[in-house]
Design brief:
alpha/beta, Anaerobic Ribonucleotide-triphosphate Reductase Large Chain, binds zinc ion, single chain, seven-stranded mixed beta sheet
């Protein structure tokens, strides 16, 4: 057994923190066993955050009379073969920790006598292993020896507890690959299954079919994955995203659809050849058809880049037709242009409104409204400006007679210096409209043109809610964004590593290294699996041009992935919790703590760059949205480590590099704090600030946008826009156990209220479609970053 010195903090026992069945993993510590423990130590009384609870304790050093527990030299040569086939050094600390955990659970107190008994049992286990094994020992053999040692020492209750853990772990392991179990979970409407994606209405038939297919796909996916990747996912060390689709199907994740190429060339959907459109109404109708098909052929979001510039040529065709009509029917020549402009403006508005309704009424084969984002704002001519205006005005007007807030498409407006940022700029008026829209509907989120290029190497809207392609030029030297895609995400559970390290930074780094190797293998597997698709699997993507080229049905899809054209992402979560584990919960002002969190992202960034060179694909660091992962990781870690203050006690993990949502820095302080992180996570990021009601005060929001321009690349607005149609309240609904209700009349019926919260980079309607517990807790914990009213009666 081993301890590392941690600057005077003399204890090291993880107590109930360990999963006892992972008996031997990790690198062997150097040196002699030297466990120290407090006689009265109880993890239940103190919490287990070492940086907080440890100094309050007065650990007693273990007496010197137990050297028999030291690993004999022979043990050093022994490797443990884990269930997933990995061979790791034998480490008797794991046996010790498992037994301490079991003992604490039974007796609730760790006395010197109990401790002594455990040390003796570990010594017996070591002797037995050293006597019977020379090189490899299988993990279950270690566990059998521990069980026998316990029985021989008449530690029956301890044995029972230890065997219980083992059995539970074995059950959990087989259940996740058992299709029957997955389906039973689904039929019993397990909330972690049916509410995993807040955009899916799990009451309707085709969502239920999708969830069933997903449960089966997940179980099969686990059998396909490399065993150590599947195992790490099941334990919660990493998260292999979208297992319900991939790797079962060789699907890609998200993309920027090459609309310009498809519309100008014409394309084919199903049995129909589609001609290039000759009006903006036809163009937007085709766009919604393309979106429906693309969204059914991949599992993540899709985006339209520079929508105003994309559609302007088609609006110009409308104008030409109206001008010709005017010349034919109107005698007064001075009226011609005004007539054509007015008719075209109306066409643009109708076309953009149809697009918004189409997207909101579309239902993909995935059983959900497609995740769509529209980027716009850089165009300067009359048509482009009119399209920008229409997009914003339609969103402000709302959906239907109740004027509900549209959740899709996500709108992303681009701010650009000398274009729309400052008074006097040609598109400053459109920025004002965007501000009004954000105060009333939360969208548009804003991109800062110059900063985005600085961080990601080129300008483009994110794929889906926040995934950014990196700057890339084709063989002819053209900067290309449209038609590119992401191949998938695997997220590493950083807070768990911090909890396992128990205050020891060196241990944190070595565990991180170990987890990143597994994550790399998982990502390489994603790439290899995506390459197994054929163009015939998804004609809309590969044959008809959504991915920017028209491949023959037998071509290799890898043409579109390799040499940095696609990205594949290493995700992360919970930098706040990581630093809280080492520096306490209020570390934001601590320069050393901040540097530590930046060093973590730098390490991730350096690894992805090295992998990109090694494999020829663009690995990027991604600030995972973790809409439901925030719940899963913290739930698993709470089981493993107990309720740890500021870490697992909240039931959610903080998104990526975000400021602790329970604190209330000003928006300016928050942005200054967060701005250093996206540089090392350029594969995906978003900042947001929490505001009070802003509808009377758009200038306050403008001040933040302006401040953000030179600091962050991508900023969202969270402001109270919930509406009660019973009593006409507007503002922040009051959180309840599972949802939200009107603070004035208590109404919580989704039919007569409209509750809009930011669930990740997207908005969601939590009242209509409940979220997982952890996400609900996170939203409830959010504190405003500005003073002001959070509700008012009255209309928009
Ligand atoms: Zn009400």
């Amino acid at each position: 057994m081993c301890s590392r010195s941690r600057g005077g903090i003399g204890w090291r026992v993880s107590g109930p923190l360990r999963d006892p069945t992972t008996t031997c993993s990790g690198a062997r510590d150097q040196g002699h066993p030297n466990v120290v423990i407090s006689p009265s130590w109880s993890p239940y009384a103190e919490g287990v955050n070492p940086s907080i609870s440890a100094p309050a304790q007065t650990p007693a050093t273990r007496d010197g009379n137990v050297d028999q527990s030291a690993p004999t030299p022979a043990l050093h040569a022994i490797k443990v073969v884990k269930r997933d086939g990995r061979r790791v050094d034998f480490d008797d600390t794991k046996v010790y920790e498992a037994l301490v955990k079991a003992a604490v659970e039974i007796r609730r107190e760790m006395t010197p006598l109990v401790h002594r008994a455990i040390v003796d049992i570990v010594a017996a286990v070591n002797r037995e292993i050293a006597g019977r094994f020379n090189t490899d020992i299988k993990i279950y053999e270690v566990q059998n020896i521990v069980e026998h040692a316990l029985l021989e020492s008449h530690e029956y209750d301890l044995a029972e507890k230890y065997i219980g853990y083992r059995t539970q772990r074995d059950f959990a392991r087989s259940k996740s690959t058992d299709i029957n179990h997955s389906i039973i979970n689904l039929l019993s409407r397990d909330s972690t299954v049916v509410n995993e994606n807040a955009n899916k209405d799990s009451d309707v038939f085709n969502t239920q079919r999708d969830l069933t297919a997903g449960a089966v796909g997940k179980a099969i996916g686990h059998k396909m994955l490399p065993p150590h990747v599947s195992n790490a996912h099941q334990k919660g060390d990493i998260h292999f995203h979208d297992l319900d689709y991939s790797p079962y199907a060789p699907m890609t994740n998200c993309c920027l659809i090459d609309f310009a190429g498809m519309l100008s060339r014409g394309f084919r959907i199903g049995n129909a050849d589609v001609e290039p459109p000759r009006s903006i109404q036809t163009a937007t109708a085709q766009i919604s058809q393309i979106i429906a098909n693309v969204a059914s052929s991949q599992y993540g979001g899709c985006s339209a880049n520079r929508t105003d510039e994309l559609l302007a040529p088609y609006a110009r065709a409308n104008f030409a037709k109206h001008l010709a009509d005017a010349q034919r029917w109107i005698g007064d020549e001075t009226q011609h242009r005004a007539y054509a402009e007015e008719k075209t403006r109306k066409d643009i508005y109708d076309a953009m409104q149809s697009l918004e309704y189409e997207i909101n009424t579309l239902f993909t084969s995935n059983g959900q409204t497609p995740f769509v984002s529209l980027g716009f704002g850089l165009g300067t001519d009359w048509f482009e400006r009119e399209i920008q205006r229409a997009i914003l005005q339609i969103r402000i007007d709302g959906l239907g007679s109740e004027r509900r807030t549209a959740i899709f498409p996500k709108l992303i407006f681009t701010l650009k210096r000398d274009l729309n940022l400052a008074e006097g700029d040609p598109n400053y008026d459109i920025k004002q409209l965007a501000l009004e829209c954000s105060t009333k509907r939360m969208y548009p989120d804003v991109l800062s043109y110059d900063k985005l290029i600085e961080i990601t190497g080129s300008f483009k809207v994110p794929m889906g809610c926040r995934s950014f392609l990196q700057g890339w030029t084709d063989a002819d030297g053209n900067d290309v964004s449209e038609g590119r895609m992401n191949l998938g995400v695997v997220t590493v559970n950083l807070p768990r590593i911090a909890l396992e390290a128990a205050g020891d930074q060196a241990k944190f780094w070595s565990l991180l290294e170990e987890r990143l190797l597994i994550t790399r293998d998982a990502l390489v597997y994603r790439i290899e699996r995506c390459k197994q698709a054929t163009p015939a699997n998804a004609p809309i993507l590969y044959v008809y041009g959504a991915f920017g080229q028209q491949l023959a049905r037998t071509d290799s899809v890898d043409t579109l992935f390799k040499d940095g054209r696609s990205t594949v992402s290493l995700g992360y979560i919970g930098l706040y919790e990581v630093a809280a584990a080492f520096f306490g919960g209020a570390w934001e002002g601590n320069a050393e703590a901040k540097l530590f969190t930046l060093d973590i992202l730098k390490a991730l960034d350096a690894h992805t760059k090295a992998w990109s060179r090694e494999y020829g694909y663009q690995f990027s660091v991604y600030s995972t949205p973790s809409e439901s992962l925030t719940d899963r990781f913290s739930r698993l870690d709470k089981v493993k480590f107990g309720s740890v203050e500021n870490i697992t006690d909240k039931d959610y993990y903080t998104n990526s590099f975000h400021y602790d949502v329970r604190k209330n820095p000003t928006p300016f302080e928050k942005l200054d704090f967060e701005k250093d992180y996206p540089v090392f996570s350029s594969g995906g990021f978003i900042h947001y600030c929490e505001y009070p009601v802003l509808q009377q005060n758009p200038k306050a929001l403008e001040a933040v946008w302006d401040y953000a321009y030179d600091r962050v690349g991508y900023l969202g607005t969270n402001t109270p826009i919930d509406r009660c149609y019973k009593c006409d309240f507007s503002g922040d609904f009051t959180p309840t156990d599972r949802g939200f209700q009107c603070p004035d009349c208590g109404n919580n019926d989704p039919a007569s209220c409209d509750v809009v919260k930011r669930t990740c980079g997207y908005l969601g309607n939590p009242q209509a479609r409940p979220m997982v517990h952890g996400r609900h807790q996170e939203i409830v914990s959010r504190v405003k970053h500005m003073a002001g009213a959070t509700g008012s009666s009255g209309s928009l």
